[in-house]
Amino acid sequence: MATTKRTLLSAAVAGACAAMAMPGWAQTTATAEAQGGAEIQTVTVAGFRSSLEKSLDLKRASIGQRDSIVAEDLGKFPEQNVADALVRLPGVEVVKDGASNEGQRIQLRGLGSEYTVTTFNGAPVRATSAGAIGSSTRDFNYDVFPSELFGRVDVYKTPLAELEEGGVAGVVDMQTPRPFDRKGRVLSYSVTGTYNNRSKDSTPRANVLFSNTWGKWGFLTSIAGNRTHNANAGFQSTGTYASYNQRFTQGNFQYGWNLVDPRANLGSLTAAQLYDANMPRFLRLTATDNERERVGVANSLQYKGDKLDISWDSLYSKLNDDTKNNYMNWITNASTGARALVPVDVTIDANNNVQGTIGNYTAATNAVLGVSETRFLYNAINARYRVNSDLRFTGSLSINESKAWRSGSTVTLDANDVANRQTITFNTTKDAMFPDIRTDRNLLDANNYNLLSYSGGNYQTETDKQKAFRVGMQYDYTLWGVEGKLKMGLSQVESTKIANQYLPTNLLNNLPLADGRLYGSLPNTPAGNAERYAFARQFLVSNDLNKIRAGGDVPRDWLTVSRDFVYNTLDAVNANRSSPSNLGSTFTAVETVRAFYVQSDFEKEVFGRPLRANAGVRYVRTGSEVDNYRLTSAGYVPAALSGSYTNALPSASLSYDLTDDLVVRGSVGKTIKRSSISAIARSINVPNAGDLAVQIGNPELKPESSTNLDASVEWYFEKGGVVAVSAYRKNIKDRPNTRSVFQPFSALGIPVTLFTSNVQRDLQADPNLPTEVRFFENAEAFHIRGLELTHQQNYRFLPYPFNNLGSILSLTSIKTAGVNRTYNNIVYELPIVPNRTIAATIYYEEGPFAFRTSYNRKSEFANFTNTALNPLGYQRWYNKRGYLDMTVSYKFNKMFELRLDATNLTDTRTYEYLRHFEGRNGDERSRLDGANQPGRNYSLTLRGAF
Length: 946
Known about the structure:
Keywords: Cell outer membrane, Membrane, Receptor, Signal, TonB box. The chain is 9% helix and 53% strand. The protein is mainly beta.
């Protein structure tokens, strides 16, 4: 039995865990009864506890700051999503895909996902998925891959000369399993069924792994696949709340009040009060349905002799994503002139928001569909050769490719004529996320609409190709009593990003009428529109996502179109794919990075205690070549740009054992983060089709650079137990910031079809509307200070049955400075990351039974990239949010283990909200946008090994 050091901290944490434990989870053993109740502990380390202890051993052995997740066995990663698994590490938070609610990207130490570099077995990789396709960032999307294809993930938080550069936040290395990770034959399987309480559908997941070694040879293959069906419901204001007296002048939010209509009744309000009160740009109910299919295969052929260890490692993964959004809209925007709103019976709440009954509302429904596919392929040769006990060489050659495409279509059903205007009553004070909304019209009556239109389509492809070559040498030496490891290496990485965007046409126009004419051939007159709508009515269906229930007293059903109409009748995917190119957002960027590093690790006893350290420098030269299209008076013409820069990135770390259990660490180093490829290479693009704004690329952008300082104290008080305090500071300069200028739309020379129908109407009325032109420039410097607290322990000292409890607790506190916004000549500091992130896992393992529950929570933070509302005094914020997950398993024998997983038990709501810089208008959380509630997932898994 291991010796346990009892402390006040341990006792306090143990007490909290014991309070949550149920005595019925375990039963008194016959051995304990035979000993008259004496405490006898037999510690068997297996499963999740074994994974944690291996991870902690890796952390303690490192010189710099490193955390790891280790699979419980080959093909048995602790969580079903790699991104979600990393959340329990201090300083890591997950960014979930909005439609599927799966962990998609990670943010490390308070910096966005673009500040983290991801590698496979040390080689850099890129992959994008779903709604991120077309953004052309440097992010890595983890949801492309089944977690069963990986055996270990290391998170390096401090720089090392031997690590790939480009990660100011850190480097995440994902390691694929190899046959000699566990000698002999391994045959394992898992079969899972998952139920989502929003979609009310059950979906399968399965994995099989075979591995064997024969002498010095070994082979491993793993196949994993799953289908998911998730759904969520929510509410949107589509970006803006404003008053009549404080509106945008760029045309994207104009509305008026009609006070002369006979129905107008201000009650006790004055006109001035009404004109100063806030209205949402839209009142939009949302229902989202997402289906995904994912399959992956990993192979490894390995030779492991006395001197040579060489392997061929490959991984293939494919993700298909199909998302449908059904929207019911009541549109405040563009309610001017004859469309002006009528205050029938209104009040103004404590937050200066209008509530009540309003007439003359334009209503519309949208069916917004998106389908995407990502295919990823990785092949690598990894080798190690030991010349003798002191000298060894390493080398790798890898190729990876991510090919992704996404097609989107929006079909709108309008009720925009005077006869079909609606009177609605709404109240957002009870629940701003699920407000009460009622209308005086039957939303399932086709007579209450008058136009079916194709509001827009999009098609994007994004291809990432990377070729990486690395060779390294390590020489072990002794000099002046210092044990050292001299490391030197060369590498070259060639990365190619190919982005294509297309300009789909109005697909409804090519729909044949009964008499052979085309839908689009009818004149744009009342009679022509009436004939079009009479034909289109046959394609209308009731809301096919009405089982996805939103809260509040709202309509559950409205007319829309089905998936079948968009994908089959309109053949949207093929039609979008064959559309002409949008040359302003089409480019090929090739980036070649050549690096040389030299690093030495040192070990020596100082005052009778081991001191371990390393120091090194990485010298990097980055060259880029961009082929895109430049907009001239004659249209788009091909353009070629090139550039290069060099960086010297020194780093040093040390680790000193103050006692047998107490370790202190320190690190200093310089890192870089290269700018987004889209910010560099794109000529001109539309970031949001609903806003009259465009974005242009800046090929002169330099990389951001960061000087990093880290220090920690770690107390390893028992096997599998640690208390750690880590502090860090990152001083970052040359951060790109958005700058905007305004130009007449007619001067830009771009088609109006890039925008949604409401913006197109505004441009048809005034082609010279001021249009915001955004671009990035190296303009900001900021710094981040962080503190990470970690406690991990097995509570073997507790009385039975609580002696099988364990916990992992972490708290990350972050302060940022240097990201500012100005309003009324006052500068406001914005937290660009959550100030506080908490992760807590409590687990219990005894014999065949295991239980685990995890809770992750992050505080609110600013959406600093969205500046459109700043002139009105508002800043957009992300809400604080937390997720509770649970796992229970029982292992009957080696071949059969039953496991139940439940995720998002808190039924968490996610949204953005508007906060006024000067604290005006009361509770700003009453002004929400992008609100969603994705529901819970329950999974039942049978797994085992032979």
